[in-house]
Amino acid sequence: MAPKQKKKSSRRKKSPKPILAASEDMEPVNMESMGHPEIYPLVLTTKTQEIFNCRIDEDITDEQPYKLINKEDIFEDLRNRAAVSDFHPVKKIVQEYPGNELLLVYDKDFKYGLNFYLIGTEEGKENYLNPPEVSEEQEEYKEYIPEDVYIYKPPVSKPWVSLGSEKEIEEASVTESTKQITYMISRKRSEFGAPIKFSDQNASSVKDAYIECTAYPDKNFTLKQLEKDVGMQVIPQIKDISTQTKWTYPKNATTQYYPREFSEEEKETLKQSKPLVDFLNNASISVEIALQQNEITNTFIDDWKHLAEEEGTFGDKTDTHLKEYQSFTDLHSPTEKMITCVSWHPTIYGLIAVSVAVRLSFEDRVHFSGKLLLQPSLILFWSFSDPIHPQLMLESPDDIFCFKFCPSDPNIIAGGCINGQIVMWDITTHADRIENVKAGGSRSKKATLKPMFLLEPESNKEAMYIRHCAVSSIENGHKKVITDIHWLSDTFEINRMGSVFENRSGICCQLVTCSADCALCHNMFWDIRPQKPLTPQTTEKKKEENIEIPFDVPSTFLHLDLSWKPLTKVRLSKGETSLDHCPTKISLKEDHLLCKTQDKVLAQSKTAKAEEMNPYHNLESGMPNLLKPIDDFCTKFFVGTEEGEVIYTDWKMEKDPETGRLMPKKPVSLHTIHDGIVHTIQRSPFYDDIILTVGGWNVAIWKESVMTGPLLQSCCAPKRYTSGHWSLTRPGVFYIGREDGYIDIWDLLEKTHEPAQSQNICITMITCIKPWIFSSKQQFIAIADYYGTLHILEIPWTLSRPSTNEMTSINHYFEREVKHLEYVEQRKKIREQEKKEMEQEMAKKKVKIYQKSKEQMEAELKMDYESYLELEKTVLINLGLIKVTEKGSYSDVM
Amino acid sequence: MTAEVEETLKRIQSHKGVIGTMVVNAEGIPIRTTLDNSTTVQYAGLLHHLTMKAKSTVRDIDPQNDLTFLRIRSKKHEIMVAPDKEYLLIVIQNPCE
């Protein structure tokens, strides 16, 4: 819209005219910078707009955004308002303006910065009002032409410009460099196919028949050896001769010889000869020197090597946990059972016997006694090869709480019942069944594949119930549950008095049991051989009680059945009171040997087989009368009681001088260490006189000769200890089972104040622990729990293999503990003495003080009185009541 | 004479750790022994050869030298051989405890 004339306008010179009330002499700003020098932007206030009638949107609209203003009006405004007038900045323009009317344009878009602008030239005015046609043309010129018809122009060929590509092509092309030679060979056709004749020819005779490349020595490649490493040895002359012979066939040839020996006479004559004597005299000197050297010291010992532990280990040294091997549960029993006692079979590998009892309290037992009668109480024989079916089941009249294999014959088993009876079994007839237990296992696997009717009638799969052979007499036996049963060693036997005699039969024939009945009998010694009838009455009773026995029960112990009386009874009295201790476990001197009777038993069984008669079946010969008594036999044994006491007492009876009856001796020592029932008393398999007792919440180790107290007494554990056992191979290790299913493994060489490690086995109370050695590499531990599951775990190498010198170290430890106890005893005595002395001194002191104080008081009183008198005198003198001269009379009066 | 012989041998046998003593002649035939026959014969035969070999070795190295005593220390025992022109005295001892 705006005219686009580029006109150079002369710059406004400063006008010489004085400006009315103007402090500043401003030059009007024009839009030369924007290319429109004639445009002068202005701001017009509303007042000005009203004056000139150029109000926005009223006088000046979009269609007519300009107004022609008279010059005179502008001048008038200028005169009226002077500097305030809006036209002040463009005053000069207005004055110089040639025409009469000025064009004022409304700048709606503020194109030039202000809302109005004034066009300062006539030409500009004219251009604005009448835009020239040129601009239209220019506008037209600037319009974009949208459509353009595309005219096809064919390409014009241009001359080719070489850029070097023909050379590349030349190089890449293949051309024949040489001309090909063609040969044409022809021959007469008749000569084709003719027979060929070959002949020899010497190559060298014909010239140029061959070409050779002769070898020649090249000096560049010759090596001269300057040094040679040679070894020399002088050997005797050797002659090597070989021949070839005719060898027809191999023949075996043997020679037999026997050494030359002197006859007896020759030996005698030689002995007499002088040279021999001389030789011996000379030689024996040097020999004795050598022997003594060896006795003094072993020169070949490498101390450094001996310091280290043995290197050969099987398995991981760092693995110290017991690994689960197998577990057995009786799935067929209707009621919940717990395992009361576990015992490994002494000879057969992989066979373990377990006694199960119903898991009820006494009240429940009484309540359900009818139901319990119908269920058989069993001892189960488990084998490693068959974890589901027990191999054998021994039946008993009531729940068995402890049982033992007879050490001299593993087919005899003695068990103690809950009702106080002893039950005996003889499984000799079934021995072959369990001996072939491993083979039987594989056979049973095959049997499961066959249908039932093809099975042999005597299949090994079914476990057989074996009835007991004998039970003890109910009236004469224990009244309460038998808590412990032991076979006495076969080296000695006991008579009624408790004296010890040697055992000629070579078998274990006596048992000792203990029970907690507080009425009369506690420890009983039983003999399994038939006793001579004391009175005719008993024989009659026997005849009456000839009950029909089932045919498959062996008659080994028929003489004992229901009439078996104990040999002797030992009571543990508590001294003056009539109360007795209630024993729970006992430990005899020879017991620890029973663990290692494998070899002994084997030897004995072999001899027994040789005799073709089991001595146990021949028991009816009765007790021989004359036996040699064994003197100096230690008849003392350890007893653990229900109250947690450990008693060391004697089973030999002595005659009470007052009443003349046989009385048991008083216990040698008694200690209350444990807070609960002592359920384990066990001798160490390595030491005769070290005993482990476990009960309540703690563990104690005793030495037999030291009666002042235990060598080691552990502090109270967080959980109750329910079973314990020594390790069979490591002298310082023992296993303790807790009531929460954890097993604590103690290692005396590692820590003595707490277990070395603790491992969780099951969720319930552990009732029995029994380790067993199978081979030098394999050791198992059987752990029985309260819910009737028997866990078999493998003992890792570190726990089964003793370290070198472990026994000596443990020995030293025990000796130290003994010394410590002695020291404590001595200190106790010293302390008591000191205490006594102190008390005496205190008493003396008191007396002295009392006396002293009395004298002192009198002296003090006297002094006080004298000083008072002096005071009285001086006061009176000062007062003038007494004259100085009269002083003497006063003192005389005193 | 015999008593002397007996006494000497008994004295040697009573040393600590001695397992056996034997007197062998130059050909390796045992004259007197405290072990059983088969063991004696075995020891005598083997040790006789070994002693001969040891003697010849010593003589070969230095002809003026001669073997006076031979001790063989093994893991379990020590075998001592006192050679002579005509006889051989063999003692077997267990030196360690």
TrEMBL record, chain B:
Domain Roadblock/LAMTOR2 as annotated: residue spans: 5-93
Main location (coarse class): cytoplasm
PANTHER family, sorted: DYNEIN LIGHT CHAIN ROADBLOCK
Keywords attached to this entry: Cytoplasm, Cytoskeleton, Dynein, Microtubule, Motor protein, Transport
Function: Acts as one of several non-catalytic accessory components of the cytoplasmic dynein 1 complex that are thought to be involved in linking dynein to cargos and to adapter proteins that regulate dynein function. Cytoplasmic dynein 1 acts as a motor for the intracellular retrograde motility of vesicles and organelles along microtubules.
Name listed for the protein in its UniProt record: Dynein light chain roadblock
Gene Ontology cellular component terms for the protein in this record: ciliary tip; cytoplasm; cytoplasmic dynein complex; microtubule
Subunit structure: Homodimer. The cytoplasmic dynein 1 complex consists of two catalytic heavy chains (HCs) and a number of non-catalytic subunits presented by intermediate chains (ICs), light intermediate chains (LICs) and light chains (LCs); the composition seems to vary in respect to the IC, LIC and LC composition. The heavy chain homodimer serves as a scaffold for the probable homodimeric assembly of the respective non-catalytic subunits. The ICs and LICs bind directly to the HC dimer and the LCs assemble on the IC dimer.
BP-aspect Gene Ontology terms: microtubule-based movement
Localization: Cytoplasm, Cytoskeleton
Database matches in InterPro entries: DYNLRB1/2, Roadblock/LAMTOR2_dom
Similarity comment text for this entry: Belongs to the GAMAD family.
MF (Gene Ontology): dynein intermediate chain binding
